[in-house]
Structure formats: structure tokens, C-alpha cells
């Protein structure tokens, strides 16, 4: 019963945040942004354990856009009822791995070799 109450509360809060952020974030005053941020943090604290919340905070220090993406995903999962209990650090790591594998960019290394005054010139071997 408590899980359903938390789920409906999260869904209502998520809808309210989305409604306020849909009004245009560039024209919002700083108080509204601060209130939205506080509500978001409160909702995340309801669905994350303290270890998971701490890990998300460390991610936020390094990559704020990635932390926002993860927070949005967690809040939408909670609103849809996919999260029935608090998310642990291990579950958060699994979510991070899924996000990273889907958005991972392939790196390509290119070696540029220069042939300027090589000591291996073939002319030296001609006798």
C-alpha cells in the first residue's frame, strides 16, 4: 500500500514539474528554478537509497547533463510504476551501464606516420 502511495505521489510531483518546466525554462525566475530543483531532489530522495543518491551526486559533479538524464529516467520510471522500492546503488550502476552502452560513441584512433629523413632509407643499403 505504501508503494502505491509513493508511486501516485511521485506521478503527481513529476507531472507538476513537467508542467512548470514546459512553460519555458528561459523565462523562469530563479525562485521557480530553485523550487523545481528542490522538488526534483526531494522526489529523487524518495526513490533512491542514500548510497545511490550519493553516487548520483558525484556524477552530477563530473557530468551534470548525464546526472539530469539519469534523474529524468528514474522519475519517469517511478511515474510509470516500474520502480516499486528504493533504487540501490547496484541498481543505479546497472541503469548507468545500460545508458552508457546505448549512448557510447565509438572512438577511432588514426596514426599518421611521417617519412621525413628516416634512418631506414633504402638508399643506405645500396652498395
TrEMBL record:
Q: What is this protein called?
A: Programmed cell death protein 5
Q: What would you give as a GO molecular function for this chain, any one?
A: DNA binding
Q: Which residues form a coiled coil?
A: none
Q: Where is this region: Disordered?
A: 1-43
Which InterPro entries does the annotation name?
A: PDCD5-like, PDCD5-like_sf
Give the compositionally biased regions (Polar residues): 7-29
Annotated family:
Belongs to the PDCD5 family.
What ranges does the record list as Basic and acidic residues composition bias?
A: 31-43
Q: Which organism is it from?
A: Smittium culicis
Question: What are the GO cellular component annotations?
Answer: cytosol; nucleus
Among Pfam families, the record links this protein to: dsDNA_bind
